[in-house]
Design a protein that fits this description.
There is one protein chain. A hairpin with an 8-residue loop joins strand 17 and strand 18. The termini are far apart. It is built from 2 helices and 19 strands. The longest helix has 9 residues. It is elongated. By secondary structure, the chain is mainly β. Strands 1, 3, 5, 6, 9 and 10 form a 6-stranded mixed β-sheet that branches. Strands 14, 15, 17, 18 and 19 form a 5-stranded antiparallel β-sheet that branches.
């Protein structure tokens, strides 16, 4: 049985007990400064159907030097979304793990911490989208700062895309049938489901070239399916290209080579 099913009631109870303030205010005292925050190397966090760990790094400075730092990834309250902190995972109790700080100079340190997103534990499809980064840092002289939303990052559902062009080989000037499927991780069911009603570009790269050109745009079916036709003019590779959405990353199918005779 999946871990989420085992402790679903416990998770709901835990979330229900969180008191959400009407607004969040930055606070602090002294000369301490947050210089930079990097989540997952500056890239969106893309999660499939298994656990995925990312690193958050915070660079802070103060004339007395940095003593410690901590930070969290969270979403909400945004409309109906509840407050949720990725460090509050019941499965790993991650918020007991301190950040690891390394001094770059007498005044500046970079502190890093890992976060694990767990589709089979607490994560649902509704969690995809924009997350905020809270940063807390303290200096050796007692200065401290707490920034509730220093920056943002994006949590996305891993996407997959297939292609098949046929017949192979094909006579020049004849019609090719190009099919495929766009799917993405479903965190509610822990599998991949078709992504419906999405524009996907059919692209072609002739043999000997390194550049794909868009032939047309086709929308996916209710099950994520793709189907169209094209005229076979020369040897080359056919692929589908999806540019992505706020909740789903861009993806390109591997080119399918067709010999035109």
């Amino acid at each position: 049985m999946r871990r989420r099913a085992i402790l679903a009631a416990l998770a709901v109870t835990a979330l229900a007990g969180i008191t959400v303030p009407a607004a969040y205010a930055d606070d602090g005292t002294g000369d301490i400064q947050i210089d930079n925050v990097v989540v997952n190397g500056g890239k969106s966090i893309v999660v499939g159907t298994t656990d995925h760990t990312v690193t958050v790094s915070v660079t802070a400075s103060d004339p007395s030097g940095i003593w410690d730092a901590d930070f969290s990834l969270w979403r909400g309250p945004d409309g109906s979304d509840p407050y949720f902190d990725a460090t509050d995972s019941i499965a790993t109790d991650q918020d007991t793990t301190p950040a690891d700080c390394v001094a770059a100079s007498a005044t500046t340190s970079t502190c890093s911490k890992t976060f694990t997103f767990e589709p089979d534990w607490w994560q649902t499809n509704a969690d995809a989208g924009t997350w905020k980064v809270e940063v807390q840092a303290s200096a050796n002289d007692g200065s401290w700062t707490d920034r509730w939303a220093y920056g943002t990052t994006r949590l996305q559902r891993l996407s997959k895309l297939t292609v098949n062009a046929s017949p192979e080989p094909v006579a020049k000037g004849q019609t090719l049938s190009v099919t495929g499927k766009l799917s993405r991780a479903n965190w509610d069911s822990l599998d991949y489901r078709g992504y419906a009603d999405q524009p996907v570009k059919l692209q072609f790269r002739k043999a000997g070239s390194t550049t794909y050109s868009t032939v047309k745009t086709v929308y996916t079916s209710s099950t994520g399916g793709l189907s169209t036709t094209a005229t076979a003019a020369e040897d080359g590779y056919w692929r589908w290209y999806f540019t992505g959405t706020s909740t789903t990353p861009a993806v390109k199918a591997s080119g399918d080579y067709v010999d035109v005779q």
